[in-house]
Amino acid sequence: MPFDPSGTLPGVAFPGQISDTEALGRGLQRHRDHPLVRALEQVIDHDPATADFSDTRVAQPCTYALGLIGAWAAGGEDAPVPVAMGHSMGEITAMAYAGAIDPYDGLRLVRSLGEIGDEQYRRRPSALVAVVGLDRDTVEWQRRLVVAESGGVLEPSGFNDRRQTVLCGDERSVDTMVRRVREGVGSARRLQIRGAYHSSLMVEVLQEWEAAVANVRFRPPRVPLLSSVDLCVRADTAGLPELLARWLVLPVRWHEATSAAAERGVAALWDAGPADVLRRIGRRTGAIPFLDRAPAAPAVSVGALR
After folding, report:
1. How far is CA 1 from CA 4, 226, 302, 303, 306, in A?
2. Domain ranges in the chain with CATH number 3.40.366.10
3. Where would I find the Malonyl-CoA:ACP transacylase (MAT) domain in this sequence (predicted)?
4. What residue spans in the chain does CATH classification 3.30.70.250 cover?
């Protein structure tokens, strides 16, 4: 039956790689004694408190760990949330939170994700750019002009809202896009992420990623999972490994995903990440309310999301 939002917890949302190094550092210091943070030292082969957060291989596992810890601290490991969802790498965090994968398997998988992205970058340097203030049609037109000019690769890897699109491509094409956008009325910001995530440039490392996913044991999630790639809601393991494998080369459809959550009756979402990135995006889109702070546990049970 439809989800009844009255008196229930909001859905929980997990961000992709966080670039706010201060937020990551504060979070790791605050939770330094948590078992998952202690496990980080083994996974990233470094003391998390003094790690280089500009390194994707470090920032992604740290973002993952702090997202899970934040969600657990807010409502426990068994909070009856109506849905769990994630942006980019946060989709893996959502799976771990929902119990679809073991949290420590997820931590190792995210480390592999960072290594694979770094490998792709070394083979063929790439860049990500967030274009803000232009609608999708305008971004697409500019993208095509850039490809015609550069002769390279430039494609959308994420749709955060109606006027924020993330593009991925080779260095020259991204530089050209930044210049064209800044000459117009929009703004463009390169993202500090090594790896052409959610683009066809990752095809050359897809086999390595599929092998990493194949080592993960999937379990039925305890709460529904809403994918920000294919917008499907999953309440069992069917399709989860396949989703995670192809996720590497498909764009993130965040605005559509939050709209889909609202259409299914979810009243609000809460950003469990350490830097409120998704909450800030949510304020711009208005697709669904984002809470300003961690929710209190509800007194009544949550209906199932169908």
Report:
1. 9, 17, 11, 8, 7
2. 11-121+202-285
3. 13-295
4. 125-195
Which stretches of the chain score pLDDT less than 50?
A: 1-7, 298-306
Give the distance, in angstroms, between the CA of residue 136 and the centroid of all CA atoms in the same chain: 20
Q: CB burial class (10 A; 0-12, 13-18, 19+) of residue 115?
A: middle
Residue range 11-121+202-285, CATH number:
3.40.366.10
Longest Cα separation, the chain = 59
Pairing of strands 154-161, 126-132: unpaired
Reading phi first (left if > 0) and then psi (alpha if -120 to 50, else beta), residue 117 is in alpha
**Bridge partner residues of 270 (DSSP):** 12
Q: Which of 305, 301, 302 lies closest to 234 in space, CA to CA? A: 305
> How many whole angstroms separate alpha carbon 106 and alpha carbon 96?
6
Each residue's pLDDT tens digit, 127-171: 999 999 999 999 999 999 999 999 999 999 999 999 999 999 999
The candidate with the shortest Cα–Cα distance to 91, out of 15, 192, 205, 167, is 15
**Residues forming beta bridges with residue 84, ordered by sequence position:** 12, 225
* CB atoms closer than 10 angstroms to residue 63: 30
Phi, psi of 165 (to 5 degrees): -125, 135
SS3 297: coil
DSSP states of 248-269: GGS-B-HHHHHHHHHHTT---E
Class of 125-195 in CATH: alpha beta
